[in-house]
Write a structure and sequence with these properties.
Length: 218
Amino acid sequence: MGWTIVTNDLIWWIPFALILRESYRAHVTEPPPTQNPAEIVELLSDAKTQTGISLAELAEESRLLVVFLRHMGCTFCRETLGDLARDREAIEMSGTQIVLVHMSPEETAGKFFARYGLADVERISDPQRKLYRAFGLRRGAFSQLFGWRIWLRGFDAGILHGHGVGKLQGDGFQMPGVFLLTDGQLVRSFRHLSASDRPRYAKLTQCGPESRGDRLKP
């Protein structure tokens, strides 16, 4: 039965990748990242969490680890949530608050994050990806999303470690990223070179200002 599940997943992934490739070719252009400082400040003030507080207000109150996720059907998004659940205590003990940014409707996100024990973590729904662009996160190239190393990591995370895959929710080409904010200022960032990159989230809150944190090797 186990191999039947694996086979079914692989059969589904192949046409899914082909569909996304055609979609990528049709929609490869996108608006450039937001550069206007005033516009960025406005975006941070307008971006509200599920509790009604803005990202700008949160940044004034505490040190933030802002985690921009891939779409919730992506196995690497699910792996990220599992890693954050595991590292949450260490992150919060460093005086850092986690904020999740995602592309799904709030109701969907609340139920999804609850599966990882993260329902109470502040989260922001950004279906138009305005915050993603404000932080310089763009759509990935085909090699960043579907290279052979990504497929191997996807098999490891999705099948061997049980994170699975789900329906596409949001932009399937949007790249993730992690940003550490202190006193409202960006002090550290981790911009994924591929969708399968796996940063050490707790270490990002502790390492020196020049470090991008470590990747976990496949």
